[in-house]
Amino acid sequence: MRRIQNLMEQWLFIGPDNRQEQVNLPHTWNAKDGQDGGNDYYRGTCHYEKTFEKPEFDPEAEEVYLEFLGVNASSDVTVNGKELAHHDGGYSTFRINITEVLEDRNKLEVTVDNSVNGKVYPQKADFTFYGGIYRDVRFLIVSKEHFDLDYLGSNGIKITPEVKENEANVHIETFTNTEEAQVNVQIKDQDGKVVAEGNGCDVNLNIQNPIRWHGRKNPYLYTAVATLTVNGEVKDEITNRFGIRTFSVDPKKGFFLNGEHYPLHGVSRHQDFKALGNAISTKNHDEDMDMICELGANTIRLAHYQHDQYFYDLCDERGMVVWAEIPYISEHMPGGRENTISQMRELIVQNYNHPSIVVWGVSNEITISTKDKKDMLDNHHVLNDLCHKMDPTRLTTLACYAMCGPFNRSAHITDLVGWNLYLGWYVPGFFLNDLFLRFFHLVFPNRPIGYSEYGAEGMPNLHSRRPRRGDHTEEYQAKYHEYMIKCFERHPFMWSTYVWNMFDFAADARNQGGEPGMNHKGLVTFDRKTKKDSFFLYKAYWSDEPFVHLCGSRRSDRSEDTTTIKVYTNQPVVSLYNNGELIEQKSGNHIFTFQLPMEKENKIEAVAGSVKDAMVLHHTEKENPDYKLKKEAKKSENWV
């Protein structure tokens, strides 16, 4: 039976200028310089070395695989001086059978390269391309007869449920490295009870009255257990969870899950953390998912690359509908066509069994700086056809950017389309969002459209009584999102909407406005410690857990004699108190505003049913100078 042995500790890292240090994995060499601005973080080649004793295994009956879950971006692997593998693509799993080169004492060398080139994506985008071995590395010790481990990082099992009325046919294909094997497959429910069973590498199993995976409402998962035997002896076993569901998109009514109208409203997510880069832990993943669930989102766009399998598992468990994509972004590189295909093949093969995933994303903002449009369009057709061939059960999509017009040919290749539009942030005019959506739907009434990105910068240390576009204040960000969430309510035909972004993230090329090296469009700060007011706006609209939130608590010093108090809540009635006295009680939906005559000190409390929130404001002659905006913070509209 297979065994796992982690290889996470005591690596020698040889970095720029041959600087050497002992590190543990996960690790990136850009954790600091990739987050400070200047577009000068190190992009080049570094080396990792590790010595290890031969793992315990039976060389007559077993084999040893070396598995990498994520190395960015290109890597060469050598064991005991023998070059064993080269891999291009920084976000997917790859494995190497190292059985034949193992000695009693071994040296593992991994050369990692995130340098600028014209063949491996991503190369041009608004986020940092952290270099390093930033996910787990481990041994897989398996019987010589085992489920296949050599095909694009697959675990050797492909599960395709098909639902018809009150029954499900589950087509399960398993792939082995031997023709002598016998395979038994069981399907178990969440209580561990066997509900279907069959024999063979290609079986169809029937489940009567299946419980459907139904997003946040009921993310029910079954487990497939495949057992490989040779001459009656068990040699290998794999388990894989899956969900039974149907989905569809109506260009006039939006997204449907299991035949039920299920509007998709959610967020995009990058995988990096402050001071860690993308070398993050399962605890970090859990923390991200907990906050996304608290927000009330029901869908996540996992941008702009393949994320950790652990996070896809969390999406399955928590009922998040997922847009999964490859980092084919910003600029088509004729020399990178092969890499787009290989990254898409790995994405689909490694993630096929996740019920959370409903769409494969082909590209993002690819028309920004593409010169060879003919080659780019052809590449898109190849990718779109590849997705449908490898996975006929899911839809395809892509994300266009603002200057890619509704008639652009690239916007009409995939099954669905999303637009990255920041109308009201990079350009003036909130109303332009309504105009764009109405126009597109009028001209292309049978083309499903969504917003793949929308947002505005907001920094918790920047504030204004009169927020304006480009000022980076928490107040303007909230004002922007208040408009957008109501705009989407006016256009129920949209198949999905995704806030850009759930969390602030590093973009080292950013040098203007706010804080260099950072994109502050997140609803939560980069360190995950501060939920901005906009976070609570969406929570008011999307979540069921009773809460009330007083906005503007970080603008604690105010010079106006009468100030506006804004409250976000999912409760129908809010009472506002100041220094223990009731100021006013209001009924409404989600957003409440009150006019409060300022006293010298104001202990304010908002009460909505059984929940309350409090803050303290001071009436001052002048605002706190920390609230004043820096001149460079007004230049954000020039960012791309």
Automatic annotation (TrEMBL):
GO terms for molecular function: hydrolase activity, hydrolyzing O-glycosyl compounds. Residues 157-245 form the Glycoside hydrolase family 2 immunoglobulin-like beta-sandwich domain. Residues 253-542 form the Glycoside hydrolase family 2 catalytic domain. Keywords: Glycosidase, Hydrolase. It comes from the Bacteria. The keyword Hydrolase applies. Residues 47-118 form the Beta-mannosidase-like galactose-binding domain. It holds the Pfam family Glyco_hydro_2_C. One of its GO terms (biological process) is carbohydrate metabolic process. The keyword Zinc does not apply. Belongs to the glycosyl hydrolase 2 family. PANTHER family: BETA-GALACTOSIDASE, BETA-MANNOSIDASE. This is Glycosyl hydrolase family 2, sugar binding domain protein. It comes from Roseburia inulinivorans DSM 16841. The lineage of its organism: Bacteria, Bacillati, Bacillota, Clostridia, Lachnospirales.
